[in-house]
Amino acid sequence: MKRTLAIIQDALRTCTRPSIAFSGGSDSLVLLDVLYRKAEVKPDMIFCDTGMEFPETVAFVREVAQAYGARLHIVRPDNKLPGFWQKSGWPFLGKMPARAWTRKHKDMNFGFRLDVSTCCEKLKIRPTRDYIKAQGFDLTFTGMRGSTDDALRSYRQFKDGYLYKEKPSAVWQCHPLLGWTDLMVRRYTRAHDLPRHPMKDKGLITTGCAFCGGGCQFTNSGYRILRTLDPKAWWKFFVTWRAGEILLSIKHDRPLWQIREALDRLGGLEAVAKARPWIFDFSRTTPLRGYTK
After folding, report:
1. What is the sign, positive or negative, of the torsion defined by CA atoms of 23, 131, 51, 160?
2. What is the pLDDT of residues 150-170, one digit of tens each?
3. DSSP-derived pairing of the beta strands 18-21 and 44-48
4. Cys-Cys link to 244, which of 28, 52, 150, 238 (CB 3.0-4.6 A)?
C-alpha cells in the first residue's frame, strides 16, 4: 500500500486535474476506494459505455459513483456494429492469440479478419482518452496491474512504467496498482466490503464487453456465460450478426465459405443455433483449461 500511495502522490505532483478510468470491475473498484479512502483524492469517474456492456454494468457504475459521491462521466462512442468488425477485424481469441492466428493464416483467404486490439482501441480506449482530453483532465488513474494482468500488459509495464504521458492525448497515465496480485485485490475487497457487481453472483467472470472473445478458447469462456445470462444479446451476436460463422471457422480451421456450406446442409445458422447453441461456447474443439490472468 505504501508503494501505491507513493505512486499516486508522485502523479499528483505532476498534474492538477485527475480522473479515473472506471470499468466497474474489481481492479477499478479497488483503485477508486484507495484513491478516495486512503489517498483522499476524489477524481471524476470516466466510464465508457461501448454499447456492448451488460445492462447491469451501467446501473452498477452509477450506484458506485453515487455511493462515493463521485462525479460520473459516461462516454458513448459511435460503434456501428457489426460493420466495424467486418472492416477492422472480429474480437475473438484475445489480443496476442489473434495476432498469432493472423500470422499463421496470412497466406490463406479465410473470408474475415481478427483484430481484438483495434476493437479495444477504437471503441473504448481512444474515445475515452479523447473525451478526457476534451474535458480538460491532465491525468488518468487506471487499474492496470501490469505483469499480474497478462503478458501484453507486462510489456507495457516494462516499457512505460507507472507514470507516463500518452502522446496522442498529452494526458498523463498513472497505474498505482502495478504489482498487485489477484489475492491482494480480493483481500482489499473483503477488508473494506467493497460493492460487488450484481452479475458476479450469477456467474459473470469479467465485467467488460459482453461480445469480447478474449477467453473463448478456455473452459470458462465468456460466450457460454453470455448464452446463459443474456440470451437475447447472445442471439444477436452469433446469429443476427452471424458471428457464429466466424467462431466455427476458427474452431475448425476452415475458411468461411466451407463453414457456410456445412451450415446450409444442417438447415442454416439459425437452425443450428437453436438445436446446438453450445457449439458456439468455445473457439476450440477441446477448450483449454480455465482462463486466468
Report:
1. negative
2. 454 444 554 567 888 888 888
3. parallel
4. 238
